[in-house]
Design goal:
It is a single chain. By secondary structure, the chain is of the alpha+beta class. It has one domain. 7% of the residues are buried. Keywords: Elongation factor, Protein biosynthesis. InterPro entries: Ribosomal_Su5_D2-typ_SF, Ribsml_uS5_D2-typ_fold_subgr.
């Protein structure tokens, strides 16, 4: 199943401003998200897509832990 959660305050603005993009290096993006938005480091590395149309200020993140 899927669960929707609000993003941290300011993250949508940073995505729209181009500070966080799907083309960023995943490790660089992880560092930025962890330092500025207290994102979990593992979750930050598991961002599947931005949306809508791969550029918007919505994220689909795989936050599963230990699923087999």
């Amino acid at each position: 199943y899927m669960k929707a959660m609000p993003m941290p305050d300011g993250l949508a603005d940073d995505i729209e401003a181009g500070k966080v993009t799907p083309r960023d290096d995943p490790k660089t993006r992880k560092t930025y998200l962890c330092e500025n938005f207290q994102f979990d480091a593992t979750d930050a590395m598991k961002i599947w897509t931005f949306g809508p149309e791969s550029t918007g200020a919505n994220l689909l993140v795989d936050v599963t832990k230990g699923v087999q």
